[in-house]
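Help! Submission page says 'invalid entity' but I think these are all valid:
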Amino acid sequence: MLEAMGEFDLIARYFSRPTQKALLGVGDDCALLQPRSGTQLAISCDMLVAGRHFLDDVSPIRLGHKALAVNLSDLAACGAKPLAFTLALSLPRIDAPWLEGFSNGLLQLADRHGCELIGGDTTAGPLNICITVFGEVEGQPLLRSGAKPGDDIYVSGHLGDARLALGALLGQRALPADLLEQARMRLECPEPRVALGLALRGLASAAIDLSDGLIGDLGHVLRASGVGATLQTKALGSLLQARIHPQWPQLSAQIKVLDEVLSGGDDYELLFTAPAQHRDAVTGAAAASQTLVTRIGHIDAHAGLRLIDPHGGLVQPTQTSFDHFRAA
Ligand code: ADP
Ligand code: MG
């Protein structure tokens, strides 16, 4: 019976669900969305390619989660509330257990954020997942271009652990089993900071989500805003969660904390700026959204990025960010 499952059975079985927010979901030539009056649609698209964005043996549940999480992270960065998404899927074969896991991981995260699957496309081919997400912005969206000299710079959550896991999975380093599992969750199951993004509207002057590493992504904010930045290495060092592991003293000899935090990709945390007079309000937004937020530096009028150690000395980063076309 499963062998006989075709494209339309597959869509009906794994990807068709009733919608509440959308006027029309899966089943016709188009889905229909009716944005509420006074709101703007925020739209973002992210593609995940096997061997490039994920390892072939990743669990389908986690892959389904991550495929949507990276898109919700873009909505979070704009201060948008998730509404709906489409799913374009290229599959080498119809593998029922894989589809079961993938759709469960995907739809559980979708349900948690009230984001409805309203359509897509399904084809045979190399494993490739492309999601377009639609969100609703009330009032001003958060953008990369609003950072002003004197603003504080913050990041949510922890940074660098996803890249630690990737290094271990690629055999470049060994990690204790419990630490690997914890770091692997960061790589394979990122939690999009949607509630924080919503709470920052009206407080943050600029925001971006961190997918390609802090240095590169902060660079986008600096260029879009026409400003520079100074970061404190002490605050940055605290962001790697692996540092609280009991075996950290032995591990620290082979792990360069600052490189992992500054250049590791796949963190899906928010980086944002806010005027200093909003410090208490930012703390309140972090508490209300139950998200760790760390102040890591400030925006300068002078272009470029400077790293300052606890003694006031300039530090030179050894690595920059990830670029798909520059990576080997
Ligand atoms: P068309 O050929 O008219 O573009 P399709 O035959 O590709 O339509 O798809 C039929 C319906 O199923 C459409 O509503 C489409 O949006 C939906 N659909 C196709 N693939 C998926 C998928 N992977 N997830 C969700 N909906 C899908
Ligand atoms: Mg059509």
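Support: the input was valid. A stray whitespace character was the problem, and the output above is from the cleaned input. The two ends are 43 Å apart (CA to CA).
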